[in-house]
Amino acid sequence: MPLKGRLQLLNTAAASAVLVLLPALGLWLWPRPQAQGLARLLPQVQLLQSFGPSASRPLPALWRQRLGADAQLLWSRQQGTWWQFWGAHGDAGAYLVLPALSFSGIASKRLPVPALMVDNLAVVAADPLSRQWLAERLQAVTRPQRGLDQRCLLQLQQPQAVYWTGAGLGELAGPVAPLLQRLQQGCLRLQLRGLSLNLAGEAAAGAGVLGAAAPAQLTRNPRPLPPGTLLELQGPSLEVLLQGLLTRQLVREPLASRYGINEAQIALLRRLPFLLRLRELPQGPFQAGLELELAPAARDRTAWGRLLAGLRQPLQQQGLQEPAPRLQSSAPQLSSGVLPSASWSDARGAVVGGWRWLAPATPGAEPRLLLFLGPGPLGQLAAPARAQASDGLHLRARPVDLDRLGLWPQAFPQLVRRADQLELVAGGGARSPISQLLGRLELSRPR
């Protein structure tokens, strides 16, 4: 090929490369307006949920409230993802977020409250004061999302995803929120398959956490909870469950002053694998009984003996009665004798709690310690699978039964509260800043 032809070919190739690479470079350097708008909104959010277009479904109440007379028209011609979120200003109500192009041909002044334009998104507030609050907050310069925040931002651009912060989790979980310290901020994508809603995402103990998520593994064929069991929570150490409580002076001070539990004994508690179980009690003064099963190492058995013995006087001072420390014939036999159990009753004679040691499930294994509130379990409990150091939290629950007893947080969506079973795994131990979340929600069959 002549030199002139080769030069023309090279120029053509170079021009084509520029035409292809420049738009890609622009998308990398300057995100799409929709993603940029979500990124600006995210720091103002407590709880946010994304939805896909579904014009065939009934008009949501939020659309009717925020869009007034134009709600049905906008709903019928929707094409892209839309969102609803609750901001840090708790009294503002839910905000409705739509692509700004949705309002083509519709004057914003026709809405009950004019939309606030955030890049390529339109945000409709419940009232003018809530709109003004958000507009003022959006004037602040925010740093680009990184790590977990960036990955959640990508998920929220797709339908059926949810994002929460510590404040949002507190609103949902109420008094249970301190037990979920490692899940204070995160996101989940939802996928409905028949009557199962699959959950997958990430969570961290706080905002701005970088790094990758500790992996989690969900069982393919989950076994249902035994009859009468409302909830089971298993983890590699009590630290992952108690870290949100034990950092509070309001909790630590009574442990020391009322029950004599010192820092060394708290450290003993932190490192133990655990199984927490909640059982329904059809009869008696309690709706449910709580059991905490631990597996102390042989070297810690003396320390646990001192800790339990130290609880006797404080419990007696609170009016509880113990006939006598019992040496049950069914308790584990050791070279030093039989490990004692205790059962505490109130003034009416109803058992309100206690502890006992459970025999090893296999030769060479250590006895397990069971602490319980309520009358305690009948018979010998089967040994649970021992959590390894790298395992995360594994929750199984019956939301519909917990909700029936008033034991499930009322702020959760009705879809969750009416589910037959929930299974959720959070990867990693207490030292993992970010956990991968995997789970499934078994929905109730229509009746």
Structure description:
This protein is an alpha+beta fold and 447 residues long. It has three domains: 33-144, no CATH class; 148-236 and 387-447, no CATH class; 281-386, no CATH class. It contains 13 helices and 19 strands. The radius of gyration is 28 Å and the shape is elongated. The relative contact order is 0.11.
Keywords:
single chain, 447 residues, alpha+beta, 3 domains, 17-stranded antiparallel β-sheet, two-stranded antiparallel sheet, 19 strands, 29% helix, elongated
Mean pLDDT: 82
Number of strands: 19
Number of helices: 13
State the secondary-structure class: alpha+beta
Number of domains: 3
In short:
With 447 residues, the protein is α+β, with helices and mostly antiparallel strands.
Task: Give the arrangement of secondary structure elements.
Layout: H1 3-29, H2 33-41, E1 45-51, H3 61-67, H4 71-76, E2 82-87, E3 94-99, E4 116-118, E5 121-124, H5 128-138, H6 147-156, E6 161-164, H7 166-173, E7 185-193, E8 196-204, E9 229-235, H8 239-246, H9 249-257, H10 263-270, E10 274-280, E11 288-294, H11 301-317, E12 333-334, E13 337-338, E14 342-345, E15 351-358, E16 368-373, E17 393-397, H12 399-404, H13 414-417, E18 421-426, E19 434-442
Antiparallel strand pairs: 1-2, 1-6, 2-3, 3-5, 4-5, 6-7, 7-8, 8-19, 9-10, 9-17, 10-11, 11-16, 12-13, 14-15, 15-16, 17-18, 18-19
